[in-house]
Amino acid sequence: MSDPRQGTAADPASDDAGGWVSARIGRGHYHTDLRARSHAFPADEPIARGGSDRGPTPYELLLGALSSCTVITLRMYADRKGWPLDWAEVRLRTARSHEEDCENCEASDVGITSIEREVELSGELTDEQRGRLMQIADRCPVKRTLEQSIRIVPA
Question: Of 37, 41, 47, which is closest to residue 24 (Cα–Cα)?
Answer without folding.
Answer: 41
